Amino acid sequence: MHFSLIGALLGLLLLIFSLTMLVPIPFALWFGESTSLVFVSAFAITAATGAALWLPNKNFKQTLRTRDGFLITALFWLVLSAFGSLPLLLAEAPSLSITDAVFESVSGLTTTGATVITGLDDLPKSILYYRQQLQWLGGIGIIVIAIAILPMLGVGGMQLYRAETPGPMKDTKLTPRITGTAKALFTIYVTMTVGCAIAYWLAGMTPFDALAHSFSTVAIGGFSTHDASMGYFDNPVILWIAVAYMLLSGVNFALHYFSYRNRSLGIYWQDSEFRFYLSINFVAMIIVSLGLIFLTKSEAAMSWQDSVLHGVFQVVSIATTTGFTSTEYANWPTFIPIFMFLLAFIGASAGSTGGGMKVIRVMLIAKQGYRELVRLVHPNAVIPVKIGDRPVSNQVISAVWSFFAIYVLVYIVMLLLILATGMDFLTAFSAVGASINNLGPGLGEVAAHYQNIPSSAKWILCLAMLLGRLEVFTLLVLFTPAFWRK
Questions:
Q1: Which residues are CB-neighbours of 185 under 8 A, at least 6 positions away?
Q2: What CA–CA distance (Å, rounded) separates 117 from 83?
Q3: Any bridge partners for residue 391, and if so which?
Q4: How far apart are CA 321 and CA 249, in angstroms?
Q5: Nearest to 308, CA basis, from 297, 296, 324
Q6: Which of 220, 192, 194, 219 is nearest to 207 (CA)?
Q7: What residues have CB less than 8 Å from 50, skipping those under 6 apart?
Q8: pLDDT class of 398 with cuts at 50, 70, 90
Q9: What is the distance between the alpha carbons of residues 71 and 478, in angstroms, rounded to a whole number?
Q10: Beta bridge partners of residue 390, listed in sequence order
Q11: Residues forming beta bridges with residue 387, ordered by sequence position
Q12: Could you write out the three-class secondary structure of the chain?
């Protein structure tokens, strides 16, 4: 293990991250807020720590090994989450404890969107902006790690995706060098953010709200600058814009790149994961919209237009694990919120900013399950599982089932730990699911916020958010004795 190299990289990362803490200062000055010193102090602490790690190790030259990559990837989220909590901890408003500040920071950087803060409408704009910025930075970090780094370590949805998919997606990297890959992804990410912000602004948001919500929409984060989330604006056009950009952000960003490079929208439809992703969302939209039209009691019934609007919006928001809300969907007929919540377990595509198990894995599990049903009728038949026209190896199928087994096991352990803190089953079940799938809002006591749950539960959920963001294996491998043996 090259600890000097790891220290240098983490130090450099902290130095870069510290600079982002200066960005909210112009907002503080513009809106006449007294939070500038908070961000300067957080910047100084973060930069000093980064320099202390980087300077002694900056001349250390070694090639990164696989184990170094695992450790750096895990520490990336742990270290940034810890230092990202500083402005929230130091600010007078919202006046958070260490537990709450870390929870909010972890939730932001993992693009989960679970919040412990209420009274968002009255908070300083600079603090509100900082929360949104955390999600935006976490989103681009997720994409770069998912597409450029995790495949090099042999883990992550993109690893099996590239290994088994025909066409342009079979490229090892988008460009010959990781720096080029990162630059290409960053360009796409920024372009989508700018487009989303302009669309929100033209639809009626203030420039500040448009920028803030474009950050959390493209990052599939779900943080808002208002307690009522997207429902605050009471504007159907804004909701439809959000639907479009949430769907786009839930697509594999490598597809966006290849579509742009080849000047062809056909790249999307050639991709089986993309077709499966759209199919799941489309079917769910129909089910929920019809459910709202026919299952809602007369005294609380919406018009069919509102049923379609809010049904489509909430399906896309939850299925892509964004977590925006347009209305109090937890009060809809029980079948609907439970059905939508289960969609978050599928999540978005591999190589996107979304969470969940990833569409590619669920698609392979479904194909494998169907193959076993056919084998019951034709025991001697040779029936390959395919993505597109290409057969998927049994090794990949085994890896997918292993991930699913570990995922379920971790979920059960987390659920039992949360139940031990005294929370009721529905709240505990949804809190763990919303955290490990990086969704954000849950059901029961955590439908609106996580402020009132025990501190011990918040720390457990922080771990769940990190496990979900790192696709479980990347973090759990650090706890195996084999990882630390020479």
A1: 140, 143, 144, 147, 148, 174, 253, 257
A2: 18
A3: 386
A4: 11
A5: 296
A6: 194
A7: 10, 11, 12, 13, 14, 15, 16, 17, 18
A8: confident
A9: 7
A10: 387
A11: 390
A12: CCHHHHHHHHHHHHHHHHHHCCCHHHHHHHCCCCCHHHHHHHHHHHHHHHHHHHHHHCCCCCCCCHHHHHHHHHHHHHHHHHHHCHHHHHCCCCCCCHHHHHHHHHHHHCCCCCCCCCCHHHCCHHHHHHHHHHHHHHHHHHHHHHHHHHHHHCCCHHHHHHHHCCHHHHCCCCCCCHHHHHHHHHHHHHHHHHHHHHHHHHHCCCHHHHHHHHHHHHCCCCCCCCCCHHHHCCCHHHHHHHHHHHHHHCCCHHHHHHHHHHCCCHHHHCCHHHHHHHHHHHHHHHHHHHHHHHHCCHHHCCCHHHHHHHHHHHHHHHHCCCCCCCCCHHHCCCHHHHHHHHHHHHCCCCCCCCCCCCHHHHHHHHHHHHHHHHHHHCCCCCCCCEECCEECCHHHHHHHHHHHHHHHHHHHHHHHHHHHCCCCHHHHHHHHHHHHCCCCCCCHHHCCCCCCCCHHHHHHHHHHHHHHHCCCHHHHHHHCHHHHCC
**CA distances, 457 to each of 322, 451, 452 (Å):** 22, 11, 10
Q: Where are the domains of the chain?
A: 3-266
Axis-axis angle for helices 3-20, 125-144 (nearest 10)? 140
pLDDT at residue 286 in the model:
96
pLDDT mean across residues, the chain: 88
**Mean pLDDT of the region 33-48:** 96
Amino acid at 214: S
Q: Torsion angle of alpha carbons 407, 408, 411, 413, nearest 10°?
A: -110
Of 115, 321, 351, 124, the residue nearest 224 (C-alpha):
115
What are the tokens at 176? Answer: 């010959």
pLDDT digits 0-9 by tens, 341-365: 999 999 999 888 899 999 999 999 9
